[in-house]
Amino acid sequence: MKTILVVDDEKMILRLAADALESFGEGFEIKPALNGREAVQILNSSKVDLVLTDLKMPVMDGYELLSYLSKNFRNIPTIVMTGFGSPEIAKRLKQKGVIHYIEKPFEFDDLNPKQARLD
User: Fold this and answer.
1) Does residue 116 register a pLDDT over 70?
2) CA separation for the pair 79, 116 (Å, rounded)
3) Under 8 Å between Cβ of 79 and 100
4) Phi and psi dihedrals of 97, rounded to 5?
5) Do 77 and 52 meet the contact criterion of CB atoms below 8 Å apart?
6) 70-95 burial: b if 16+ Cβ within 10 Å, else e
7) For residues 55 and 87, what is the distance between their CA atoms, to the nearest angstrom?
8) What is the 3-state secondary structure (H, E, C) of 68-112?
9) How far apart are the first and last CA of the chain?
10) pLDDT single digits (tens) 52-89
11) How would you class 57 by CB atoms within 10 Å of its CB: exposed for 0-12, middle for 13-18, buried for 19 or more?
12) Measured distance CA(40)–CA(34) in Å, rounded
């Protein structure tokens, strides 16, 4: 079973993302985190196969989480969700090793891990 860590300070987004990912079939365990600090705790205590994170969050934002991932969990693919997409953001995320980013609001199909890539 693959474990997907979903990080967002909005509980509704966590629920929507979990529903979307679970709709793609069996074999995904979804671990939610409300901020980067909670995500780090999960990363350090569980095996995670994919991270789906927001950028703007309290306590520890997505950029800090991406930096932590690049230093400590370089092999975990990461997808970013943001309401503030731009070519500059895409370039910055690609430099941090992000495989794909999607803009909020998103459709369920945008979260299909089988289609994840950075455009």
Assistant:
1) no
2) 8
3) yes
4) 90, 10
5) no
6) eeeeeebbbbbbbeebeeebbebbee
7) 15
8) HHHHHCCCCCEEEEECCCCHHHHHHHHHCCCCEEEECCCCHHHHC
9) 28
10) 999 999 999 999 999 999 999 999 998 888 877 777 88
11) buried
12) 11
pLDDT in tens, 10-51: 998 888 888 877 777 667 889 999 999 999 999 999 999 999
The single residue listed with the structure tokens 């909020």 is 104
- In single-letter form, the type of residue at position 37 comes to R
Give the helix/strand (H/E) hosting 31: strand 28-33
Q: Which residue has the tokens 């990461």?
A: 78
- Is the pTM higher than 0.85? The answer reads no
Q: State how far the Cα of 24 lies from the Cα of 19, in Å rounded to an integer.
A: 9
